[in-house]
Design goal:
With about 950 residues, this protein is an alpha/beta fold. Helix content is about 35%, strand content about 15%. Helix 9 crosses helix 17 and helix 16 packs across helix 17.
């Protein structure tokens, strides 16, 4: 069967699902289509023309290469297609972004036919996705006296690719659609259980919200054809939980503008809003697509005559509505005045933060990528011409306060800044281009990152990046047909691009499904590093890490840079002493609870949490930094003691060496270089040349939080509070309760120990508890299922060496087998322990799930509706979050324990301990190594 015949079969299959033909990325199929176009009498010629013109993906796909070559033939008169004139061929090339299309345009512009060269030059002047090989060709031609090359370079130096674009419209009319009340997780916009379809944009778009919402949005568009639909989180924050480029893509697909008539299902410029604004990591993603994020502030605290908030019966401030944004409300956004107005012209809220000069540039260019590449192209062209580039783009915002010290994040950004005058010291609020040291791509967003790299014509990892890793952890649980189709293809692409990959495309080493955050934490070997990762939990305990959308990850991989404002910081310190029976996870929960009690509002939201936690190794400190995503922080930084940091770096070196020994080294020698960087950093610390990162004593913070360890007297649980009468207070991470609240009456249907929140010590705690209970009662019986998923294979290997895996095997009713992988997700659980493959497992929710309506107690981070557990018809599913010992004991009891039961169960067990840095570091015991 020909490729085209197979494509027709696929089209018929998709039509039954209400889907259009899938966009073409295969060069061989494109060649067949071209052959049918050339055959004037071919029965499929008309359809082939449509597919070639409107359904072939641009960038560096093999299909784009074939398409660009054929268009070049048409322009040169080597092929005759009446429907595609040379002028139309140039137009099609102009929409192909880069890679083969730029190569074809350069061939034409630097060719002998002056008429064609002039037309090609005009098209090239609109392109920004040029790489070194492309600008090298222009430079060589210019130095040889080619006037066309000089003309193109002059245009680039003036940034005409940007200046000649239309300005952002002054007034944007919108009609509102309230997607939900309360915080809106990106799972609503792009469900985790549909992750396999993210690269198929039309198919994935059908999972946004629900069919009723999609229908309502379409109705609003028909009723208001001249307005854009603004998606709203009423009484909440839009886009919490993750950056989720697929979520922004879906919103743009339903409410945005088409990017190109010749590229299907790629839309841009969505408008999203929330009563409490947009989650920071999601807002970055909105900027990638040139969209608008609105902080509505339409509900405010009701104030008493004493000037203090009036509290309700639950102790929370009462809210009152300033103005309504109920579905169907018409509003006006004025981009010049930077304000939101009612339909009648009444001013509602200031939008200055939505329309900074930089964000307006993204909107004008249609994406942040175009600006990043445009600035680089302008600088390169000016350098070739030997001229000073004119000031076209908004100058970077530089804020410097004389005499004011630097926070930790300010120090890192200043150290990694690109394009800042020597000696210039920048403080929070400054816009900065920074070098990115470590980049991570995970497997459910990875196919989209690959698409983005193809679209921006990138073919190789930037040499500026120290380390880059592609994981397989989000699809580790079930090796189903979807994973088998997507994962090997992704790994092959990323391995060719230059990343270390969890799976070897050649099959030389055993596939690794280690949790990406754990691997990134190990390959981060400098506390001054900047890390970008395709997941909201890219929160390292060395350096500063930012969870990012798949596009920003692609940009970091391709350029080795990122651009963002320096965030404000909140300083977190500790006093007192941890009780013997408490686990560090309880300190993490208590931090959130005590912060809210001290400040009333969440001062962490959108800021850096600078946590002074120097006596904890990177593995354990990661538990804190990981949770900061749920605190709605932009990122976090651990301030470590010198000795502790050295120990963490030595541990990282050993883990990297294991990766090398397993055969995971890249051809570039990336992993060996990382060990070299770690050695240099250790030498700097030991010599005193450059001690562990610390803020200046006179640094300025937005707020400070002091966590009282003495006040943490019983284990804490983060509760989704699924039945709260106030919908906006459900499924937040702000409801932190002690176990006594549940009076040992909260039934637990399933326990889960796993995800990126646990380390080796947590799995050892499980083993120690089993030994203790066995010694006390003779055997251990589970009244609820317990799922255990270690984050990495290293942990399992070490547990086997130290004798802990044996007791886990003894009480497990299921143990993963890498040579006989599960091909179907589990839908029912027995009251046994399941030892699952390393990876995300239940926390991701895209493969394994608890039974509908279950009450799950987990060590993970996710308590959003439907993530770990879906609702049943008669009962809401709920995912409560707690420490490992609480989860294990609750699975054994089938309910939450009493404090006395808990204390008895953990007696003599090495829990994860922490002492404030000013005290003598406590003995962490081998359990944590």
């Amino acid at each position: 069967m020909s490729l085209y015949a197979s494509y027709l079969d696929e089209i018929a299959s998709r039509k039954e699902q209400g889907l259009s033909p899938k966009p073409i990325d295969d060069g061989a199929l494109t060649e067949e289509i071209i052959a049918q176009i050339k055959d004037a009498g071919h029965e499929h010629r008309a359809d082939s023309l449509q597919f070639f013109i409107y359904n072939t993906l641009p960038g560096t796909t093999s299909a784009a290469g074939v398409k660009a070559g054929f268009l070049k033939e048409i322009i040169l008169g080597q092929a005759d297609v009446p429907e595609i004139t040379p002028a139309f061929a140039f137009e099609l090339l102009s929409h192909m972004k880069g890679g083969p299309s730029v190569e074809a345009l350069l061939d034409l512009a630097l060719g002998e036919d002056q008429g064609i060269a002039a037309q090609a030059a005009e098209v090239l002047k609109t392109q920004v996705f040029l790489y070194e090989a492309d600008t090298d060709r222009l430079e060589a031609a210019y130095k040889s006296g080619n006037p066309v090359a000089e003309d193109i370079l002059q245009s680039y130096a003036k940034a005409e690719f940007f200046t000649k674009l239309p300005e952002v419209e002054e007034e944007i009319d919108v009609v509102t659609f309230v997607a939900a009340e309360g915080d809106i997780s990106t799972d609503l916009l792009s469900p985790g259980n549909q992750a396999h379809s993210r690269a198929d944009r039309e198919l994935h778009g059908k999972c946004m919200c629900d069919e009723a919402a999609q229908k309502h949005i379409e109705e609003l568009k028909l009723q208001h054809p001249d307005k854009r639909v603004m998606l709203i989180a009423e009484k909440g924050t839009m886009g919490v939980g993750s950056s989720r480029m697929s979520g922004v893509n879906n919103v743009a697909l339903w409410t945005g503008k088409q990017a190109s008539p010749y590229v299907p299902f790629v839309n841009y410029a969505p408008v999203v809003a929330g009563t409490n604004g947009i989650s920071p990591i999601f807002l970055t993603t909105v900027g990638v697509t040139g969209g608008i994020g609105v902080d509505l502030k339409n509900w405010v605290k009701k104030m008493g005559e004493d000037g203090k908030p009036i509290l309700g019966n639950d102790g929370n401030p009462l809210l009152e509505q300033k103005y309504s944004v109920e579905t169907g409300t018409v509003l006006k956004i004025n981009t010049r005045k930077k304000k939101l107005f009612s339909e009648d012209g009444d001013e509602l809220v200031d939008m200055s933060e939505s329309f900074t000069p930089q964000k307006l540039e993204f909107m004008k260019a249609g994406s942040s990528y175009a600006i990043v590449f445009g600035k680089k192209l302008q600088t390169t062209a000016a350098d070739i011409l030997g001229i000073e580039p004119p000031l076209v783009f908004a100058p970077s915002k530089e804020i410097s306060h004389e005499g004011q010290g630097l926070t930790a994040v300010e120090k890192i950004f200043n150290a990694n800044a690109v394009g800042v005058a020597e000696g210039k010291v920048l403080h929070a609020g400054s816009d900065v281009r920074v070098k990115v040291n470590i980049v991570g791509s995970q497997d459910t967003t990875g196919p989209m990152t690959a698409q983005e790299l193809e679209a921006m014509a990138a073919t190789v990892l930037s040499p500026a990046v120290d380390g880059a890793y592609q994981s397989g952890c989000h699809t580790a649980s079930v090796w189903d047909a979807k994973a088998q189709a997507n994962t090997p293809k992704l790994m092959a692409f990323m391995n060719r691009f230059g990343l270390v990959t969890g799976r070897d495309p050649k099959g030389v080493y055993h596939p690794m499904t280690d949790v990406i955050h754990k691997v990134l934490n190990d390959i981060t070997v400098d506390d001054w590093a900047i890390i970008i990762g395709g997941d909201s939990h890219t929160r390292m305990s060395k350096g500063v890490a930012f969870g990012a959308d798949s596009g920003t990850v692609a940009l970091a991989l391709a350029t080795g840079e990122a651009s963002m404002p320096i965030p404000e910081s909140v300083k977190v310190t500790f006093k007192g002493e941890m009780a013997d029976h408490m686990d560090f996870r309880d300190v993490v929960h208590a931090t959130q609870a005590q912060m809210l009690k001290q400040h009333g509002d969440n001062v962490f939201q959108g800021r850096i949490i600078e946590v002074h936690i120097g006596t904890l190794l990177a593995d354990q400190a990661f538990t804190f930094t990981d949770w900061t995503a749920e605190m709605k922080a932009k990122a976090s930084i651990c301030i470590s003691n010198d000795d502790t940091l050295i120990d963490s770096l030595e541990l990282a070196k050993s883990r990297i060496q294991i990766m090398i020994d397993k055969g995971m080294e890249q051809d570039s020698g990336m992993l060996a270089r990382l060990i070299g960087i770690a050695d240099r950093r250790i030498a700097e610390i030991r010599s005193g040349e450059r001690p562990a990162l610390k803020p200046d004593d006179n640094a300025k913070y937005f707020a400070e939080v002091v966590v009282d360890l003495d006040a943490i007297v019983e284990p804490m649980i983060a509760d989704p509070d699924v039945n709260n009468a106030d919908v906006s207070k459900r499924y937040t991470h702000d409801t932190i309760r002690p176990i006594s609240y549940y009076m040992a009456e909260k039934k637990v249907d399933l326990g889960f120990v796993g995800s990126c929140m646990v380390h080796k010590g947590d799995i050892k705690i499980v083993a120690q508890m089993l030994r203790n209970l066995e010694e006390e009662t003779g055997k251990v019986e589970f009244k609820a299922p317990l799922v255990v998923a270690a984050p990495t294979y290293n942990i399992i290997d070490e547990l086997k060496e130290e004798g802990d895996w044996e007791i886990l095997q003894k009480y497990s009713g299921f143990e993963f087998d890498d040579f006989n992988l599960k091909t179907k997700a589990r839908t029912e659980y027995e009251n046994i322990m399941y030892l699952e493959r390393p990876g995300c497992n239940l926390c991701m929710g895209n493969q394994e799930k608890a039974e509908k309506g279950d009450t799950v107690l987990a060590t993970s981070t996710r308590l959003f509706q439907g993530r770990v557990v879906a609702d049943a018809e008669t009962k809401k599913g709920e995912s409560l979050l707690a420490s490992t010992p609480v989860v294990v004991l609750s699975a054994i009891l089938g309910r939450t324990p009493t404090l006395s039961e808990y204390k008895e169960a953990v007696k003599g067990i090495d829990l994860t301990k922490f002492a404030p840095p000013k005290q003598t570091p406590i003995d962490t015991l081998s359990v944590h190594f």
